[in-house]
Structures
1.
Amino acid sequence: MDIEDLQTFVAVADAGGVSAGARRLGVSKSIVSRRLFRVEAELGVQLLARTTRGAALTEAGITFRDHAARASAEIDTARETILPTGDLRGRLRVAMPLTFGPTHFAPVLAEMARQHPKLHIHTSYNDRFVDLIAEGFDCAIRAGYLQDSNLIAKRVGPFHGKLVASPDYIEAHGSPETVDEIVNHQALMQGTETWQFMDGDRIVTVQPQGRFKADNAMALAAAAAAGLGIAWLPDCIIHEYVASGALVPVMTHYPPPAAGVYVVRPPGQHPARKVRVLTEMLTEHFKRNPDLWGLDR
């Protein structure tokens, strides 16, 4: 049985349909359908029941999926073991934030592709929270503070940010001087996140409230400059606003705790070598570019 056909079945099973599986693999639906046909013909059983909404695993498919996933993973590990140290191949699916990915991380992926011409790199740029396991990603790049999860994270660099507001907002509503005063202000947020600040050696957590939300830091910076509220934003987004006076740092006596940039991957005993190589390249990228996140410290 062809290992590529086997991996295609696993991708379709996890994605929930041929179309979704084809997008995940970066190939056409016709190619996926041919591979699935070969697997089912080889086994002599139906693995997927096609529906108008996609494809559902049959009882045989449910049983076979786990075995196929383990076999595919073992083959990938074996290939990495016998390949020359510098030679990467196969496919690397990476999820990156839209806000920072194209400017801060895309050059590293381009260099990785240049160094490893047999490696296929598929990148998704999106500021939403991506489910690595359900959506079939090898890893993701995340910046800020990590949520508790079963994912494995490796820090590759620092991440700097601060609380800011426009002069017009401060003139109209004042500037928060303590953590307790934040709840009295309009907060600009990505969702329902909490904000953390350092009070001496102690970390203080606050639940901000606000009516304006966006899943992109650049949109929040524009809203803050328009006087809609206060926002916790990274230096690489706001340093030009601060330099021009459009935004002013507030509550500077309570700085946010140190944050970081991380490569996160699904749980497993050992990361794939392609993920390790990307992690090493990102770490080196941050070492060579200490001011990557903006000059406003």
2.
Amino acid sequence: MSQRAPGPEAPGADRLPGLAAPGGELDRLVGDGARTVGAGAVWAVGDAGGTLGGGAHGVLGQGPYARLRPGPDTLYDLASLTKVVALWPCAGVLWQSGRLPLDEPLGHWWPPAAGRPTGAVTARQLLAHTAGMLPYTRFEQLYGREYAAIRAGVLAAPLHRTPGTVVEYTDRAAVLLTHLVEDLGGAPLDELAARLAWVPLGMADTRYGPLDATLTARTAPTEYEEAVGAPLCGVVHDPSARLLGGVSGNAGAFSTARDLARFLTAVLAPPPGLRWGGAWIDESLREQTGGLLPARGLSWLYAPGTDPAEGTFVHYGFTGTGFWVSRRLGRWALLLTNKVHYDRDIERLTELRNAFRRAVFG
């Protein structure tokens, strides 16, 4: 087990409502941090019973967006949080139903991977980012713009590392898992995610884009796009997901703080009948990288700055999103920004994320 200097103790459950109160410590922390970061922010914390508190600060962006303020119903491009909110629960349903073996090389049982380099990797390695796939996408440069050609290219690409030897985060793992999950599930990922995760939890705002005009009106803009002469808004920021039609396991989902609170609450206290609850959450929220660093679970990362023994997990999105969960402490937290709308310098956002995590989880 890694050693690190003792950090602040996590606030007790009885202190969380006070921390999360309007104008309380967390509200001040995020408000001050949002001004430093230079982007608006929405935050919330809760436990197995639901949301304990939250708030919003700043404005949605520049130009016409400077007149708009974020809130719990503001839609954010989740970027890589899509891996957890969409792809992870679908994989869990398939695993719990016996259709997705985690430890059998793909080429032994999934025909599209047979005879391919990716046939040597397992679903567990894909979920833990130890599959050894190439660390970059470059899909258009390598495979063109056709959907089928990109999928074929990902399947046929040589491995970058021997599977199971290095933890190396890559969107290719999620793209390959999307292909696998859709094949086994018999439907596109957006349909599977809605049916298996979002509708059962009442996540009425969560969906893949492109969003319609009504939803776009309450969506945080992301980065300026030369081709359209404006910031992207309601269209996925991630270029790989855009090439794949906007629906992919690596990125593409939009959601609100209100919906994500429902999702994180369910991770702590799965409602009866949730098909990815129980054993899948148990399996996912434990160390899966065999001592390799950075330690990861399945889809989830142990929060940087914490010891894995503390059991605090996180996932971040490139656009400026992030959420945390700790079953040991029985609490969750989310912090949503659209930092990429302003620039790609994330140093101050990283500082805010870390300070927020320490305040909630210790």
